[in-house]
């Protein structure tokens, strides 16, 4: 039995409504992961520098008494502060976001919505795009919409690969120019 355009649109709208809460929690989860990554990187080089300076001072015997340990104390304070005020709260937020996401993906409505629907398109973005393809009349059946979306995603993937390749080629060309300039300077210095 063939579905009408309105039935297909309603079917896809239902899928969008089922996947929307999961999309929101997934976005939140990614934001919390990014926040944790930034928290772990915050002052990282400075903290390492403090420990390295302390180590160098101890090895060389520079400074007197407490002066030897100033950089160590600064490094410990920065490390502890980052841990206490940035990393631990970010980890707690990430854990909470993960729990919310797990709750949403375990909802019976969400799980039942997967039945008889292609797994790779069962997300808010793809159900929205499928809806638009049918709504705009670019696909008359669900199968046509699936095929058209798959083709679009393939083309987008190919464009992305081309952009990465172009960026890599640009980077290689820039590195080659820098190496060429370095060679010229080295040849000039050798000639002197």
C-alpha geometry: flat
Oligomer classification: single chain
| Cα Rg | 28 Å
Low-confidence stretches: none
Q: In total, how many beta strands? A: 0
Q: SSE order, as H and E?
A: HHHHHH
Output the keywords.
single chain, 192 residues, mainly alpha, flat
What features would you describe in this structure?
With 192 residues, the chain is mainly α. The chain is built from 6 helices and no strands. α1 packs antiparallel against α3, α2 packs antiparallel against α3 and α5 packs across α6. The longest helix is centred in the last third of the chain and has 50 residues. 13% of the residues are buried.
What layout of secondary structure does this protein have?
Blueprint: H1 5-41, H2 44-60, H3 70-105, H4 108-113, H5 124-135, H6 142-191
């Amino acid at each position: 039995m063939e579905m009408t355009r309105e039935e297909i649109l309603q079917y896809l709208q239902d899928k969008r409504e089922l996947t929307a809460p999961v999309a929101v929690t997934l976005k939140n989860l990614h934001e919390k992961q990014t926040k944790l990554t930034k928290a772990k990187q915050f002052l990282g080089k400075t903290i390492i520098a403090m420990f390295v300076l302390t180590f160098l001072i101890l090895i060389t015997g520079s400074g007197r008494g407490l002066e030897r340990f100033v950089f160590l104390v600064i490094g410990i304070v920065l490390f502890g502060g980052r841990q206490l005020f940035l990393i631990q709260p970010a980890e707690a937020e990430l854990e909470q976001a993960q729990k919310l996401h797990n709750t949403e993906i375990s909802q019976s409505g969400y799980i039942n919505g997967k039945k008889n629907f292609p797994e790779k398109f069962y997300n808010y973005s793809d159900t929205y795009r499928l809806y638009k393809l049918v709504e705009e009349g670019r696909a008359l059946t669900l199968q046509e919409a699936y095929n058209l979306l798959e083709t679009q995603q393939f083309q987008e993937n190919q464009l992305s690969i081309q952009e990465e390749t172009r960026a890599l080629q640009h980077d290689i060309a820039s590195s080659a120019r820098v190496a060429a300039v370095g060679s010229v300077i080295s040849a000039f210095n050798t000639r002197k």
